[in-house]
Specification:
homotetramer; alpha+beta; Thiol Ester Dehydrase, Chain A; 5-stranded antiparallel β-sheet; 3-stranded antiparallel β-sheet
Chain lengths: 140, 140, 140, 140
């Protein structure tokens, strides 16, 4: 069975990201996850701004983070993300945050597909469902 | 000549607001200013959500902050705001952030009135212009 | 068996809290959770700034949020929080975010107790452990 | 007279950066400015984390932004920053935010040099003052 496509991006921690304990504030990891899945969607050929322009949204209905180690100002982080699973109407994206290989945080977000006009749940757009079913075509 | 109406609200600093120097991160003062002018508009009888529902926006075209002293996690702050000046199409709101009377920051924001349909500049809605001309009627 | 003490605070959503879908950005719920547990610790008699001054930290090692409905600019939210469970070295705090009674989000954070000098895990300070064992004494 | 050294970095706007008007929230430009001056200090050979490790801080005492055009989710922005002026104890850094060449925002921050032990104002470390006096040596 094939491995899911993994996206990768780097990020430099800003002073704004830190808190007075000296480390990246915990809520910011969800921003990191967003950056990662945003890149993942772009990599598999359906960038989120395009998806929104097509009338779809993917609001988060569940988020989970396990924090293993801390990061601070100036650190260069690696974000990795991949599609964990999906149904006709939902996606689950897994993310990892690493620093020089060491795992800082791992977690996932679950997204429901929303029709932005009616603001009601809907099926994933076929273009996305197909891409996700076989991402190998989109990013050679 | 009459003094402008001054709004006042209190705010408790969260851990999220701080940075690794131990104090409130400087950009957050612009969020404090937003909270203050939001309350100011509500106090003078034209809350910003109502203004947006009526098709107007007040995007910031200029912001300035002078930082005098620092605040940290758990501090109870006082925000004061008032209309500094306005023209047919622009507003200038002044804000102060204080802690137990001591001035922490002072500054202002300038706003252009925008038609949210056309996204073009427009005159302030008459309801707001009238209220601002004589706020004394709106908040006894 | 007694119910745990529940803290309660209110919060007004700022424009800064929203994103371009029009709702509160999902990471901000973790900031809401922080505000809630901060109030919880103050209510049970051991405010977090005091705990830090005593050389302890409670960094988050796990966070989870289930999102049920959205909030937007100007909404008045109710945050509820309570101690879910604790061991000699860890706490779990549960939080709910409601709007006019309706549940918007529910989740929890798990915290390890840290010695801020050595930055190593340590036992919860006895003062906190005792308070948590019987919070009924601290907030009549 | 020589031109000051200009630093340059790129940044991709996240969903978190936007607000419900659909654009980058105005306070985030001060975060962009921070990223820019952070890179500027690294480029001229004295990264801010090193400066802090040496016992110095450069808290912002004044900030100003003129907003000219808006940015939104997914935009690739260019940040440019340079030393505007400095005295024995203060720095002024200018910043521009551009999108495909078009100016979105321009402004500056003024920083006082702080001794992080005493938390009192002090002279800029000689290493920084010298570098700033002649940045041409530091980044060929």
């Amino acid at each position: 069975m094939s491995q899911p496509y993994k996206t990768h991006l780097t990020y430099e921690v800003s002073y704004a990201d830190t808190d007075r304990m000296g480390f990246v504030y915990y809520a910011n990891y969800l921003v990191f996850f967003e950056r990662t899945r945003s890149r993942l969607l772009a990599d598999v050929g359906y960038p989120y701004p395009k998806l929104e322009a097509d009338g779809f949204g993917l609001p988060v209905i569940e988020a989970h983070v396990d924090y293993r180690a801390s990061a601070t100002y100036g650190d260069l982080l690696d974000f990795h993300g991949w599609l964990d699973s999906h149904t006709a109407t939902r996606l689950r994206v897994a993310c990892e945050v690493r620093k020089q290989g060491a795992l800082l945080a791992v977690g996932y977000t679950v997204h429901a597909c929303l029709n932005l006009q009616s603001m009601k749940p809907t099926r994933l757009p076929s273009r996305l469902a197909e891409t996700l079913a076989d991402p190998s075509d989109s990013h050679e």
